[in-house]
Structure prediction request, 238 residues.
Amino acid sequence: MQKSRVVASVLTAGFAAVLASRIAAQSGAEKPLWETLIKKPLPEDSQPTISVFSISGSSAPPVQPPIGAGHTHAGPVFVYILQGEIETQVEPDPPAIYRPGEFFYEAPMHVHRFQRNLSKTEPGRVIVFQAGNTGQANPAVKLLLQEPLRTTVNQELSLLRLTLPAGALSGTRDHSGPGVVYVLEGKVEASDATYRAGDLFPEPANLAGLTFKNASSSKPAKLLLYQVSDMGGPGSAR
Prediction:
C-alpha cells in the first residue's frame, strides 16, 4: 500500500511538472513581441515636426516610373513596405529590393536616386515616417499626419514593431517626445478607442504612454510605432 502511494505521488508530481511546463510554454508564446527596426539621432537643426506619408503606385509591367528621383531630405526618413516589390536606391548604397514587412532608412542629405514598384501583380504601397522639413509637394505622396516637436536638441527617433497575439495586452515603450501609431494588422484597443488595419493615430508625449490590447480573441495584431525620445532614454517595455 505504501509503495503504491509513493508511485501515485511520483506520477502526480510528474504530471504536474508536465502541465506546468506546457502552461509556461503557452504563456511564453502569448507574450507581445517588440522589435526595434530603426533608431537614429535627430539633427538639432531640423524643423521641429514629425510627419507620416503614404506613397502608392501602379504594378508592373510597365515598371512604375521612379518617384521623387534625385532628391534629399534634411531629416531622417524611415520607409516601411506595405505592399508590392519596391526597388530603391539611397546613396552611397547600391539599388536594393524590399518586400512587405521590410524597411529602409534615408540618412539626412543622402541622395535618394529612385523608387519604383517591380511587382507584376499588385500595386506598390509604402508608409514613410519623416522628421524635419517635408520638402516640395509630390502628387504621389499623401500626408497622413503631422505632429510638432517641443525640441530637436538631444533627441532620437525610433521605429518599432509590436506584435500582439490574440487577446494580448502591452504597454508602449517609454518615450519623452510625441509618437505616432500605425495599425498594420488586426484590431487594437487604445485610449478607449478601437483602431483597425490602416488606421493611424498620435501617441502622447509622456513616459507612461498608452496601453494596447488586441481586440481579437483568435487573430494576432501588429503595430508600427514611430517615437521621439531623449537621446539614450530608457526605452523599456512596460
